[in-house]
Structures are given as C-alpha cells and as structure tokens.
Amino acid sequence: MYYMTKKLIQVKNISKQFPGVLANDKVSLDIEKGEIHAIVGENGAGKSTLMNIIYGLYEPTEGEIFFEGEPVEINSPLDAINLGIGMVHQHFMLLPSFTVAENIVLGTEPRKNRIFMDFKEAVSRTEELSKTYGLKVDPYRKVESLSVGIQQRIEILKVLYKGADILILDEPTAVLTPQEAEDLFNVIRKLVKDLGKTIIIITHKLQEVLAISDRVSVMRHGKMIGTLETKDADEQILAEMMVGREVLFEKLHKEKIPKEKVLSVKGIKARDNRDLIALDQVSFSLNAGEILGIAGVEGNGQSELVEVLTGLRKMEEGTFTVKGIEVFNKSPREIRDLGIAHVPEDRLATGLSSEATIWENMLMGIQHTEPYAIKGIHMNKKKIMERSDRLIEEFDIRTPTGDLPAGNLSGGNMQKMVIAREFSFNTPILIIAQPTRGVDVGAIEFIHSQIIEKRNKGAAILLVSADLDEIFRLSDRIITLYEGKITGEFLNGEISKKDIGLYMTGKHMDLAGRGASNE
Amino acid sequence: MNSKLFKKDLEYIVSLVLSISASLLIGALIMMANGRSPAVGYGALLKGAFGSKYNMANTFAKTVPLVLTGLATAISFRSGIFNIGGEGQLYLGAFAAAYVGITFTTLPKGIGIILAIIAGALVGGLYAFVPGLLKVKYKIDEVITTIMLNTVAVFFTSYLVNYPFATTRGKLNGTEIIADQFHLSRLIRLSTLNTSIFFMGFIALLIYYLMEKTSTGYDFKLVGQNSLFARFGGINDRRQMIIAMVLSGALCGLAGVFEVLGVHYRFLQNISPGYAWDGMLVALIVKNNPIGVIIMSIFFGALKTGSISMENATSIPSELVLVIQSIIILFIAGEAGFKEKFKEWNAGRKVKQKAGERNA
Amino acid sequence: MQEERLNKRQVKGMLKQVLNLTLIQHTIRTATPLILAALGGLLTEHAGMLNIGMEGMILLGSFFGVLGSYYFGSSLAGVVLAGLVGLVVGLIFAIFVIDLKSDEFIVGIAINIFAGGLTVFLLRSIFGVKGAFSSPDIIPLPRLNFPGISSIPFLNVILNNHSIFVYLSWIFVALIYIYLYKTPYGIWLRASGEYPEALETAGVSPKKMKYIGSIVCGILCGFAGSHLSLGYLTLFTENMSANRGFVALAAIIFGTANPIKTFAAALMFGFFDALGIRLQVVGVPSQFTQMIPYVATIVALFILTKRQLAKKKRDREGAA
Fold this sequence. Notes:
Oligomer: heterotrimer
Distance between the termini of chain C: 63 Å
Shape of chain C: globular
Largest sheet of chain B: none
Number of helices of chain C: 13
Low-confidence stretches of chain B: 354-360
Helix content of chain C: over 70%
Number of helices of chain B: 14
Low-confidence stretches of chain C: none
Structural class of chain B: mainly alpha
Strand content of chain B: under 5%
Order of helices and strands of chain B: HHHHHHHHHHHHHH
C-alpha cells in the first residue's frame, strides 16, 4: 500500500455500458482531500454518469473505486452517504409538498421513542445547520413555494446534514442567476477553507472552472482526457481538450439579402408554468435573410418567447404580425399555416415521437396535405416514403432505413431529423431553439451550415441558444433577454462577448455608467 | 415490409406465443392438480370451439362483442386516453337499442335496425364524451371517471328494467321483447350467430382503415405517443382525444346493440358478462393493433365456447379459461420488463465471462 | 296511483322503518370492508400506484376466508388465509408494477379477472357447488360486546355485537394515520410516490416502500373480503365483492387519500349502501342510492379540480 493518504477517492478504469451507449470508457480519477475539483466536458461526455457511479446510483459495468486507499463497493446512495459522500443533483431531489425541514432530514430523520418522527428536532437541527453554514432557510416552508436558488441551498444543507465531507455538485449554476451563482461560489469556498470539505463540481462553463477550482479533469465521449492544475489551464486549453481539436470553425459565408420585415412582435407579455411573468413587453422585428440571435442565461424567458411565437403558449398582452396578419393566441396549426416552422429546444419532449418511425416523424405537419394525403384522407405511403428517404439523405441522417423508430437514432441524428422536417416546409420564418444541444461536434458543423444556407436563401430566422459562441457565429443581429425583458440589441460585431454578458445578466447599467464616465 | 421492423413485430409475436403457451401450461397444471388430464381437457376445449359447424358458429358469435369492444379500447388507448368505461357504454347502448325496438314498432325492417344502431352508438358515444371532456378540459383522470361511470350505467339500466320498462311477462329483470322486424337473422340453427357478424366485419374494416391508413389515424397515434409533439405539429390534441373517446364509446354502444338485436331480443339487467373488460384484454394483448384484435378475439371466443364443452366432457369448470386469460395478460403486461431483466441478466453474464477470460 | 297518495301516517311509518338505529348499525357493518380496502388502497396511492385490483383482492379474500374457516374450523384460520392470499396477490402486483414496470391498471384488471375466474373455479372444483357455498362448518368471526355500554340502548345497538373487524378497522385508521404522518416510514412511503428519486438519493429504497404499500394493501383487502364472507353471513357467493373494490377506490379519491377523510367517505358510502337496502325493503328503488358513491366521486373530483384552478388564479392575482 503506497497510496498517499491525501487521495480521498480513486476511481480506476470505470466503464458503464448503457443500451447502445458506452457512457464511461475506462475512466480513472483521483480526488484529493480538501480540494475543489472541477470536471468539465460537453453534454453527453459522461460526467454525470461517472458521478452517479461514485454516488451509488449506477452500477459500473467494470472498474474499481478506492476510498482512502481501500477498495469499496458503492451499491447504493446509502453506501455513499456512509462514506461521507453527498451529491447535489442537477435536478433537485426535493419533495415539493414537504417542508424544508422534512426534506433536509429525509432518510435520517430524528426520532422520538425510536419509531416516531421528531418534527421539533428536525426544525431545530435545520436551524442549527442553517446557522453553521450561513445558508438561510425557513424550516417550515413547503419546498414548492421556494425559488430555485433557495431550493439549491436546501439541497446543499441536506447533503451536509447527512454528514458529507465530499460534496458532488452536478451543474450547480445551470439554473442560477449570476448573482446566485456568485453566492454559491462563496459558500463553496467557505465549505472548503473553513470546514475542510472536499468539493467535486461538474460544469461545462469554463470561466467557472477557472474561477473556483484547484484542479480540473476533462472528459470527452465517455473517456477521461486528463487532469491538470487549474493554474496551468486557460479556456483555450480546456476547450481543446473538451472537443478534441482546436475550436476553429470554418468561417460561414453570409450573403447580403435585401431587408424586408416579415415578423414584428409588439409588447408581448406571458407567464411561465409556475404562473410567474416570464415575458414582459417584448417587442422586436425580424427581417428576411437575417438571423436574429436571442442571447440570455437560460430561464430568462427564451423558452416562453419561442412557445408564444409558435402557439404553444398563451400570451396575455401584445400581438405579433406575420406578413401583415396579426396574431393573438392562434393555434400552432394556424401559425404554421402562416409560414412559421419551429425547431424546438427539447427535441425529445416536443420535437419528435421516439416510438414513431422516422418517416412518421418526418410527416408531422403535412399529414393532411396533398400529395401525402390523397384527398386529405388516405395516406400515400409511396410519396411519404420518397420524401422521407430524400430528407434522410439530404440531411445525412445515419440510419439503415426510415422505417425504424426515431428513438433508435443518436442525439445528433434525431436533431437532424427534426431540422430536416422543419426546413423542408420552406417557410419564410424559422424559429430555432438550441439547435446543437447535446449534439456531437461533426453534426454541429453540419447544422450550422444548413441554418446559414436557409438564411442565404432568404428565410428569416430567430435563433435562441444558451451557447453564446453559437449566437455569435450565426447571428446577424443579437437581442439580449434578461428576466423576460429585452435589455439590448446589437449588430453582430458591434459588441464583445464579455460586454454582452453584462446585458444578459442585467448589469448593463454598470456598463452604461462606465461608458458615460469614459466619455 | 422492412426486415428490421418485421423483426421487432416477430419478436413480439414470439413473446405472445410464449405467454400464451405458458398460461396454457399453468392451466394444464391446474387441471392436473384437479386430477384431470390436460390432453383430454384441451382436446375437449378445441373440439368444443371448432369441432362442428355449430361450435364454430358459437365461437364466432362470441367474437362480435369482443372485436367491437377490443377495437374501442385500441382506438382510445392508441390516442392516449384510456376508456375503461366500455362496460357502461355497452349497457347504455344496449338499452337504447332495446328502447328503439320496443317503441318504434311500426318502422320497416331495415330502417328500424339502422335507427337502433345509430341510437346505441350515439348513446355510448355521448356517455364517453363526458369523461373525455373532463379529462381534456379539467385534467380529471379518465381511468377513474370511466370506472365510476361503468357502475352508474349498470345501476341506471337496472333501475330502468326493474321499474319503468320492466316486462309485464314474468320477473325477468328485462324489457319487453323488441318488435320482430328488429331481430337480426340467425345464421346457423340453434346457434346465436347472427347477421351482426357482418355489421361487425364492416365496422372492423372501417376502423382498421381509419387507424392504419388515414391521416386521421396518424393523428390519433401521434397524440397518444407524444401529445406535446402532436400539438407542436399542428394537431389539435385535445379535440383528437375527445373524438377518440367518443368513437370508442360508440363502438362499445354498438357491442350492446348487437347483443340486443341479435342475441337476447331484449335488454336484460345483466346483459354483459364483462364483454368490455374482455375486449380490453384482447386489445392490450395485441398492443392495440386492429388486425390483432380480430385474431385475438377469435382466440378468446374459442376459449369461451370451448370451455363449456370442456366442462361438459371433463367436468373441469369453464372458469378455468378466465384464469388462463388473466395470466396471459399478466405475462404480456410484464413482457417488456421480462425482456429487460433477461437482457440485464445476459449482459451481466457476459461481463462476468469477459472478466473470467481476462483473469485467465 | 295509490302509492302517490300515501297519507302522512304511511310515510311516517315508512320513514320509521328506514331511518332508525338499525340503519346506523348497518352503515357501520357495510362500511367496514370499504374502510379496510380503502386503507390499503390509499397506501398504494401514496406510493404512487393506482390499484384497481382491489376488487379482485377482496373477492379472493372472501373465498379463502371461507375456505380457511371451513377446513380448519377456525375463523382465525380463515382470516389468516385470506390475509396470506392478499399478501401474495399484493406481492404479485408489486413485482409486475415495480420491477417489471407493467402498467398498473392492466395488472389491476388482470387481478380482477383472475380473481373472478379462480374463485368460481375453486368453488366448483373444491366444494362442487355453483353460485354459492354455505355450510354450518364455516365458523364466523367473533362478535364483540362491551358489557359497559350494553345498558345504554342507543350505544348498545350501534356499537355492540359487531364483527371484530369493525373495531379493528377503526384502530387501523388511527394506526395508518400515525404511520403516514407521524413516522419516518410514512414519510418515506409518501416520498416514494411523490418523487422516488429524491428518496433514493436520501439513502432509502423507494422500491421497498412501494412493495410494503402494495403488500399491506393486499393483506387489508384480504381482511375486507374475509369480513364479507365470515363477518355476519357465513357463505361465499360468486362475485361477492360486488364492486366494493371500486367503491373503496372512490372513497380514497373522495377522501384525497387522507386516512381520516377516506374513513369518513367510506362511512358515507356505507351509509348510502345500507340506506339503499332498507329502501328496497319498503319498495323504493335502491339503484339511485347505490349509484351515489360513484357519482359523488366524479362530482368531488370536479369540484376539487375547480377549486385548485381557482386557487391558482387567486395566487396569481395576489402575486401580481
């Protein structure tokens, strides 16, 4: 035994095989005591899988885990908890209809007379915990009534309550506002410096990695690419490790198209699923032959905007006009007929049916029109298959046949299928949300070039993306959305990524102030 | 047909055959536990179902309500709305037909029958419309409401035939006999097989065409698979669900109509021994495939008819087939799960094997 | 015509015949199997599974209650056998729904049909009778009499001389209430239905909780069945459960799966059942009173949903 005692967790040659996907391929990783260790990688690189294995939620297909030098079997979260490992999941593991205190003590409740739950004790322990770590919560409140930032606090307290010394945080900032994220980082630093905890943080935001971690490990396509000291890393190095080559996309050729306004949006107000105001007085216009990028931190109204414009969500106020026709709460069918096609942000939930075959997925939207439906009734299988096969070829969808369920396709090919269908309608307006989310690099190039081609042919494209690089690469014009309001509008090239970040986070007032003083 | 898709279908057929065989095997074990020979029992069952023209006629007579309620289930389940209320719709449809048959006694033959059919379908459809609307408009679980409405319909018709519409001739818990011109002609002597089987065939063909060959059938299917995707693609998913529900109810109503016009010639308090439940099983077993519904209905019809002969020949109670049917459905319900477990087990074995090779 | 012109005295006489203490006594009696089954069903409901197989579980309980009591000459043996069979069926439900990920209501339907077939099959192959089996060798459940209250006429009629399950069912209501809301295990069971992943990451197996819920449901339904066949009458008839599983389901939904409210709903439904039977005696159709639980459940669901929508709207206006 010559392991250094410093090595808290060692993962050796872990593989995890899911049906059709090798999510982890002989991954090894060391975690040292008292460090903040970042794990980065693109969507689908296998980060979460690895963490779920360490936390006992997945059983590895092969490989070993050592804890303080001893081999351990972590078969369930309980085993992980007993080793002092706690995990804060990307999707919070909180019971909405239970109180904060009940959630925090879940699984290891304080008891009276051995079998009864001691609610008073649960509350007082929650208060105590809250004080110790400086994370303020109200133990009596029901979780469903709390904001996302507070819910994350509860998640962290829950893990600390279980006595965790090692905290795994899975994409903790994905749902947070920049201010909340900054608060979270302060908490993380405190946990490490003052209380001797060890942190593993999963993210794909490189700036965060550089800001907070001591060491960083990079994963790609299920493999561990390497671990380095954060002080030796910069964004360029990490990005290259993440995507496996220098991130130099080909310059896209953009043709000049005469301006013609095809969509104008006036004063839209709408609510999100929790009934809070998601869009407030949103107005803009979109021209033919233009890509208008909507930049914003996720959850600032982008999804709702797309849904309103495609008829999937009701608006309370405002209208939008397509080719001179005013729209207020029309159905998706009517809006499609006006000439708007839609590539939705969540292809699995909205953009396809994984049970249906590829040709059936390709048919959606035109199933009642000639020549695919004879007299609008009888499906013309021959024409339908011809079109489907043609699109499969044009969009390079990798499948032996169009007769297979769409669920058999990889993420990138599914997305190409959705794009193929929506693009094939040749509508004057395209609304495209998160076109390359969870798609491999090769497919990204292809999808980008398809989008540009549409633009060059004169389509008006509204592009929503959480990926700022994508926005900058494709857009002619950029609008920033923050808390449901438009905070800025720029021509591409007019503003830097850094400055646009301020508009996306509502801090542009500072910029304006700075600008004024510079003048 | 594409080979891969065919392979998937084939795989399911294999599971189906395995499930049915396993259930028949369990049935055989039960027979043996009763001290009877399974060979004799199943032999009598087979002979009872298909052994003569009369037996075959009885088997096919039984398929009429099964096919109709089975298709009713298929169309609603495929559209993602679960009509469990077939039994109630059947009762109301049957009563409506009987009502027409005892009220409009002066109508000429063809028109009377058509009127009774329309009335039954309409009443069944309307009765399904209520839970459909509650589901779509208020998101009230249709499984629960349709279960509740089943019993409501049974009690309501029971009231009708015991009080306002009770026959004056004897205590039958039924209505008066419908007028002669409403009787569907019998096809084979002594058997209840009647011309409703032609109506059934025609309706089944229509439903098959609707479900498999039309754009509307596509809409139903896609709403059932992913209603958000359907809405995204311009289908009015809510309307589609309600239409599916009403169609489903109408089909169940028709099943009731034919029981009255073709078999009993009157409405009876216990007119259905659970046809809609059996029809539902039929549809579930074949995963809502309309052709499958027809084949499986014949199988179920044969089990039902054959079991009576089996009972007469071997004194094995005919209810054994209910046990067999329910075990088939259990196996089919667990089919995907069994397969997954089997794959996991197989994968685990392979990994161990591989590890063994590496160690060696 | 004559009936319509009932004079006051006749109406009074009829009312007296219908609305008396015996009605309350009957209510308690008819509500008991509903309470038992509903208590079981609300456990699976909390664990996130809609169990429509209760109907079949009750039916099996009735049959095996009679079988056990008849063969072993002891009502306790009947109850134990009914409970055991319930346990096994609950386990089968759990295996299929939880481990094999089968659709819960398909499994429920299968259980109902299985129970209907098996009980009649066994009735005929074991007892050789059709329709019903009755015998003096079937030992009924013991009845309890509290001597303390037998001198109070009102309480004597209502509370005394009931089958033991009547009193047990009340105790079960309290126990299950305490279990669900006052113990960690109850919290786990509810969590396993609301958000199983949350429970799993907290180190408790949601599967285990679901299994427990399902098995206890089976046992309680078995008891409910044995109360039917051994409580007052000692016989088994085909389809003896007569929709009680579905009424229990209605009570759960009506009572929003809260044990106390569900208990109240079951009592109410039992009352309408008892009322219907008594009305029938005096010649009033019972079908409408029998319908009440089902209609009431749909109405309750409707009102509940409306109220939720209204609340949402209020919250929104409050927030705005």
